[in-house]
């Protein structure tokens, strides 16, 4: 990871924002983390997920299997986005049994908690949309998501071919994404603080757990061939939905990436303003979508306050709107997920052309 620093990290916008947010919590007397609403949401989502999985493996009939299979895919998205993601940010607070379970339950779907903390919490949240430091937009020859990335001819068509790559996300994450963690005890060159033996041991445990949950148990009911076919179909659908959910968090519309002085290793923007400009708000009045995605459709609030419970994101978004409007800081907002997807296509087309 490139050791860049922001030009400023404590501007008038950030100070005013924290004052307003502190006032909100002091006046409402609600906890910032580990609130009962968050715990209830986690219990409901995990119950929905495990219930769908159990019903599917009961193999009652074709209609029930179809409904439970579909339900399991959507619940899996909610489990990762609405439960595991927040837990790994510490939103359940300390000494929370539900929080600890939430951190690692995604392991059953093949997601590495160690890998996620390295890649997402540290790199992405610090260097949001900064090429070379945020691996989410540093995609090599796969796609061009930054003006700092060298142009290649095929990027002209990335808004078309990318839709055939997104369905492979889950397969990549469970098979290759965290291999560096196993072999080098590091992610993006950053070494783990844990010993190499512990890292490798936990890596193996996670893979065995995922294999058992996703393949071995279902194969006892459906047979290995049907299980593998079902797993592949489910993985492709899940990956496409997850990719859309993730990409519409940042990569939509005309880009507003921060300029970087690589010679002096300086990001020419304030940290908080960069989070605001690059965090997208999608369908903020859609409570069902907000529940399923754990508030990640209100992404500005999440990036500015990643350790605060997602149950507060709707109210925090109102506070952010008020201050951003007063200070004339632009935001990206889309009224629906469909409009955000269209914005993502626009984003891909923009970087698919040569940009100075």
UniProtKB/TrEMBL annotation:
Protein's GO biological process: lipid biosynthetic process
Species whose genome carries this gene: Halobacteriovorax marinus
InterPro entries: FA_desaturase_dom, Fatty_acid_desaturase
Domain of life from the UniProt record: Bacteria
Protein name as it appears in the record: Fatty acid desaturase domain-containing protein
Pfam families: FA_desaturase
All copies of domain Fatty acid desaturase, residue ranges: 72-331
Record keywords: Membrane, Transmembrane, Transmembrane helix
């Amino acid at each position: 990871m490139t050791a860049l620093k922001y030009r400023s990290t404590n501007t008038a916008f950030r100070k005013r924002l924290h004052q307003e947010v502190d006032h909100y919590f002091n006046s409402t007397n609600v906890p910032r983390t580990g609130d009962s609403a968050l715990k209830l949401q986690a219990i409901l989502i995990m119950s929905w997920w495990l219930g769908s999985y159990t019903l599917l493996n009961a193999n009652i009939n074709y209609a029930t299997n179809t409904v439970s299979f579909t339900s399991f895919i959507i619940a899996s998205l909610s489990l990762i986005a609405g439960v595991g993601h927040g837990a790994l940010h510490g939103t359940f607070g300390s000494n929370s049994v539900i929080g600890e379970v939430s951190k690692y339950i995604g392991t059953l779907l093949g997601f590495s908690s160690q890998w996620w903390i390295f890649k997402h919490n540290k790199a992405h949240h610090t260097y949001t949309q900064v090429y070379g430091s945020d691996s989410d937009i540093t995609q090599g020859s796969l796609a061009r998501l930054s003006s700092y990335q060298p142009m290649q001819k095929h990027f002209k068509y990335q808004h078309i071919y990318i839709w055939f790559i997104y369905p492979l996300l889950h397969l990549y994450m469970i098979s290759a994404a965290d291999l560096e963690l196993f072999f080098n005890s590091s992610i993006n060159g950053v070494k783990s603080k844990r010993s190499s033996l512990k890292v490798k041991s936990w890596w193996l445990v996670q893979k065995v757990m995922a294999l058992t949950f996703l393949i071995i148990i279902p194969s006892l009911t459906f047979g290995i061939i049907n299980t593998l076919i079902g797993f592949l179909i489910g993985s492709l659908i899940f990956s496409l939905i997850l990719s859309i959910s993730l990409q519409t968090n940042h990569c939509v519309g005309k880009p507003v990436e921060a300029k970087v002085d690589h010679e002096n290793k300086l990001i020419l923007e304030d940290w908080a303003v960069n989070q605001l400009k690059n965090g997208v708000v999608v369908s903020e009045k859609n409570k069902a979508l907000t529940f399923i995605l754990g508030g990640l459709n209100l992404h500005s609030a999440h990036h500015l306050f990643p350790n605060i419970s997602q149950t507060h994101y709707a109210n925090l978004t109102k506070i952010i709107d008020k201050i951003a409007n007063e200070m004339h800081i632009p935001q990206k907002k889309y009224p629906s997920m469909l409009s955000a997807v269209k914005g993502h296509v626009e984003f891909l087309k923009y970087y698919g052309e040569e940009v100075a």
